[in-house]
Each structure stands twice: as structure tokens, then as C-alpha cells.
């Protein structure tokens, strides 16, 4: 039996508060509403930015960001706060020249103030993240390469509405999740695997297994093919991320790698009404000239990609049944003031790596990564909505997370959660409204290339 039938009536009172449509997660009404209106899902996963970094300057009421609730400050030196501090403030660089640390140990020091925090104390709730180590870690890594003000700006400052007009228009016109976390406090490919399969299968770094199609677990791509649903993984040929469908041995062993195609095809397919049920887009990464927003790639070049994808969907014949999910892989070492919650382990795997102080750290995959921007873009979501936390199958109020996508796609395309992490995630089918909007913008504004700010040279 599908979970929706089981939890239908009982969760109404709990979730109705958060749900603008009056629907609620897992209810049969919300699921059938989702199924009747959404035929095409488009997922674009950008790179390495936190919620506070990208959406910190958005004025839409209700967003939990530095503009509304800050400033938030981090000491230069975790051991001696008297040395000074750097705080959240408006305006960051178009190109962030010094890529912040976001290895698992980098996240450890940013969140917990130490490279090797006590896992048992974290699991028991005794040790909670303070999110005070972002400036310290940026200075530790780059103090010889840039001055302190620039390093603080890089990790603590946020983009103003004017700097990111594309994101601003999306926030004002569609739905933004206030509390959405990446699955793993670590690098890209583990997070991209978790987004598409619910686990990184013990991988904590971008190791060769991803490029060698060596991941053995079930992915959304395998799931859809086996149940006669269609998908295509579009890839920017400039490379640098994914293709995420290519991580899995199943994709190549079964000859489904022909569904990995160049991004240019997306625009043709969108115009012709030929988009598959799931379109999954990999942007290019990571330097100047790439489109994922990964440092030192320009924010404005990332906005150009987002606008191109949106404009193609909006003007295409499938728009009326499309749900475009815009999200990020991870928070990339950029400051965010919201601590990352605990979450169930997806499997029994652990990952061990050596930290900069010489000690090993073993990560049990029992907590989420940093808070990241995620938006639902569709004629079937409320204008300018801000979604708070979700209600999961266990009636718990929890933050949304990367695996909330798999949880919701399970409602749409009838599959059970792949593992306990996916099962735990709150789904969001209740955010799909009953009636389609007719006031959605036909095109997004032109991005603002403020490149001269980004390349401020080292003096
Ligand atoms: C974010 O940034 C670094 C590269 O600077 C990676 O190690 C992370 O995994 C992630 N992105 C990519 C593309 O790997
Ligand atoms: C998928 O399609 C094939 C061929 O038409 C059919 O045999 C199979 O039962 C279908 N599977 C599902 C899960 O619908
Ligand atoms: C989409 O819906 C709008 C509003 O109902 C309608 O005007 C438009 O013709 C529809 N577009 C397509 C391609 O069906
Ligand atoms: C969810 O909450 C309702 C009442 O609020 C309860 O009847 C139901 O058993 C709960 N479900 C779970 C899985 O705890």
C-alpha cells in the first residue's frame, strides 16, 4: 500500500498550517493533485552556494536570511575572538576567487569549530553546530593569497536583489524553501549521487568511481526506466559536473547511456514539446566562463543559464504541466546561519579522511549538509511563497533536504523510498495548487554582469 493512503487523514491538522494550498504531504488528495497537473519535472542542480550567500539579500517577507535576521558574525580566530570578526553584509563578488573549503572536514570546522568533532556527542544532540568557523577556515586556507577583507567578503557577504535579478524574480514569482539542506556536508559528487539515489554509498570525495560509472545502487534513472517512465540527462559539454546519470553502473550496463545528451538538445526538446517526464540538467563547472555558480565561475553566468532554462520552458508547449526544481548540490563553504540537522543513515557505510591537523575523521552519514537555495517553479505553485519546514511520514516537523525530491517523485511516479534517508525526508506534493496561475512571467530579467567587482585584484 502506498504511504499516502495510510497517512492521509491523520496528518491534515499538522501540515495544513505550512501548506498554502491546504493540502498536506502524503495525503491521497495532494498526490492525485500532483499527478493530475505535473507531467514533466525539470531538475537543475547548481553548484556550491549556501542559502544565505545567494538569497541573503532577498526582501520577500518570511525568508530566514541575514537581511531580515542578521547580521551574523564569525571570529577571525576561533581560539582568540579578540582578534576581530567578519559579518554578513550586502554585496559579494560576481566571481569568488578563493574557493571556500567544503571537504567534510572543512564543513566540520565551519559548523562545529573543529576538524574532528565528536560523532557520538553530535548524534546525541550534546554537540550542536554553531556555524562560526567560516571566516576562520577561509583565512586558514588563503591568508597568503588575499587580504582579510576580501576573504570575509567571499564567505560572509550576500548578493543583493540587484546583483541577482534572475534569482530575485524567481523568489518573487514562485516558491522558495526556507529550510532545505544538502544531503551530505561534503563535496559535489557524493551530494549529486545522494540527490539521485538517496546515498553516496560511502563516498565522501569526488573519487574516480563517479567518472568510471562504478556506483552500484539504484538511482532515479533506473527506477524510471523500469517503470516505463522517460528521462534525459542534459549535460553542458564544457563539463565539470556529472553527468549524474553516468555515475551508475546500471546506466552503462543496460545501454541507457544514450539518454545522456548535450544541453543544446534541451532547448530543442523544450521548444518542440519533446521533454521527457524527467529532465535532469548538469551545468558546467567550476572556473570563470562556467555556468554552475561554483567559484570562481560568475554568479551572473549562472543566472544566464537559469534564465535560458526558464525562458525555454515558459515559452514551450509543455509549460502548463511542468515543475521546474532549481536547487544546488551543496553549500560550498559559504556561510549560513542555520545549523544542519541530524538525519538517519541511508545505509551502513562510513567514510574516513585525513584532516589538516593530521587526525583522521570518520563520517557516519548521520547528518545533513549546509542550507542551500531550492525553488519550485511552475504555474502550479503560489506566487512569492515561502515554505517553512515539512512534515515527514513519521509526523515529525523536519527540514527539507535533497532526498525530498526523490520522496516527492515517488509520490508522482509510484515508487517506495530507496532507503531510510529518503523515507525520512518530507515530500512536497502538497505545495502544488489546485488551479494554474496565468500571471507567470514570460521571461526572466537579464542578469547583471558586475564582473569588475569580482576580479578585484590582490594588491
Ligand atoms: C565544490 O567545490 C569543489 C571544487 O572546488 C569540489 O571539491 C566540490 O566537490 C564541489 N564541486 C565540484 C565540481 O567538484
Ligand atoms: C513496461 O512496459 C513493458 C512493455 O510494454 C511491459 O511489459 C511492462 O509490464 C511495463 N512495466 C511496468 C512497470 O509498467
Ligand atoms: C496554458 O494555459 C494557459 C492558461 O490556462 C492557456 O492560455 C495556454 O493556452 C496554455 N498553453 C498551452 C500550450 O496549452
Ligand atoms: C501521525 O499523527 C496522527 C495524529 O496526529 C497519529 O494518529 C498517527 O498515528 C501518526 N503517525 C505516525 C506514523 O506516527
From TrEMBL:
Q: Where is this region: Disordered?
A: 438-459
Task: Write out the transmembrane intervals.
Answer: none
The residue range of the signal peptide is 1-18
Top-rank taxon: Eukaryota
* Classification via InterPro entries: Alkaline_phosphatase_core_sf (IPR017850), Phosphoesterase (IPR007312)
Keywords from the UniProt entry: Hydrolase, Signal
Protein name per the record: Phosphoesterase
Amino acid at each position: 500500500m502506498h504511504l499516502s493512503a495510510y497517512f492521509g487523514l491523520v496528518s491534515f491538522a499538522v501540515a495544513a498550517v505550512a501548506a498554502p494550498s491546504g493540502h498536506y504531504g502524503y495525503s491521497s488528495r495532494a498526490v492525485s493533485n500532483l499527478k493530475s497537473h505535473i507531467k514533466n519535472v525539470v531538475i537543475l542542480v547548481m553548484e556550491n552556494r549556501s542559502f544565505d550567500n545567494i538569497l541573503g539579500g532577498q526582501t520577500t517577507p518570511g525568508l530566514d536570511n541575514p537581511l531580515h535576521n542578521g547580521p551574523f558574525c564569525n571570529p577571525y580566530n576561533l581560539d582568540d575572538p579578540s582578534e576581530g570578526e567578519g559579518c554578513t553584509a550586502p554585496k559579494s563578488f560576481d566571481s569568488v576567487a578563493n574557493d571556500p573549503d567544503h571537504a567534510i572536514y572543512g564543513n566540520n570546522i565551519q559548523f562545529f569549530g573543529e576538524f574532528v568533532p565528536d560523532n557520538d556527542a553530535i548524534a546525541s544532540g550534546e554537540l550542536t553546530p554553531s556555524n562560526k568557523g567560516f571566516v576562520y577556515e577561509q583565512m586558514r586556507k588563503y591568508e597568503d593569497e588575499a587580504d582579510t577583507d576580501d576573504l570575509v567578503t567571499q564567505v560572509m557577504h550576500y548578493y543583493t536583489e540587484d546583483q541577482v535579478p534572475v534569482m530575485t524574480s524567481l523568489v518573487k514569482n514562485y516558491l522558495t524553501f526556507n529550510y532545505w539542506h544538502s544531503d551530505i556536508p561534503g563535496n559535489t559528487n557524493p551530494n549529486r549521487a545522494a540527490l539521485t539515489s538517496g546515498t553516496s554509498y560511502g563516498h565522501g570525495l569526488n573519487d574516480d568511481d563517479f567518472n568510471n560509472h562504478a556506483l552500484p545502487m539504484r538511482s532515479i534513472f533506473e527506477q524510471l526506466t523500469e517503470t516505463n517512465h522517460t528521462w534525459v540527462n542534459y549535460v553542458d559539454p564544457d563539463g565539470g559536473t556529472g553527468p549524474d546519470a553516468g555515475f551508475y553502473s546500471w546506466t552503462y550496463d543496460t545501454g541507457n547511456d544514450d539518454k545522456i545528451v548535450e544541453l543544446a538538445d534541451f532547448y530543442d526538446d523544450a521548444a518542440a514539446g519533446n521533454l521527457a517526464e524527467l529532465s535532469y540538467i548538469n551545468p558546467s563547472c567550476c572556473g570563470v566562463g562556467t555556468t554552475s555558480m561554483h567559484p570562481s565561475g560568475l554568479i551572473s553566468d549562472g543566472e544566464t543559464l537559469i534564465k535560458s532554462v526558464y525562458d525555454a520552458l515558459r515559452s514551450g508547449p509543455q509549460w502548463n504541466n511542468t515543475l521546474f526544481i532549481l536547487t544546488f548540490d551543496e553549500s560550498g563553504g559559504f556561510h549560513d546561519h542555520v545549523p544542519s540537522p541530524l538525519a538517519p543513515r541511508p545505509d551502513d557505510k562510513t567514510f574516513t579522511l585525513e584532516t589538516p591537523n593530521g587526525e583522521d575523521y570518520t563520517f557516519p552519514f548521520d547528518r545533513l549538509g549546509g542550507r542551500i537555495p531550492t525553488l519550485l517553479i511552475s504555474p502550479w505553485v503560489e506566487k512569492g511563497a515561502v515554505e517553512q519546514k515539512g512534515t515527514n511520514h513519521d509526523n515529525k516537523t523536519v527540514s527539507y533536504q535533497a532526498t525530498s525530491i526523490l520522496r516527492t517523485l515517488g509520490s508522482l511516479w509510484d515508487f517506495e523510498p530507496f532507503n531510510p534517508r529518503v523515507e525520512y525526508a518530507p515530500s512536497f506534493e502538497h505545495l502544488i495548487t489546485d488551479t494554474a496561475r496565468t500571471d507567470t512571467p514570460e521571461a526572466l530579467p537579464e542578469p547583471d554582469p558586475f564582473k569588475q567587482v569580482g576580479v578585484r585584484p590582490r594588491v
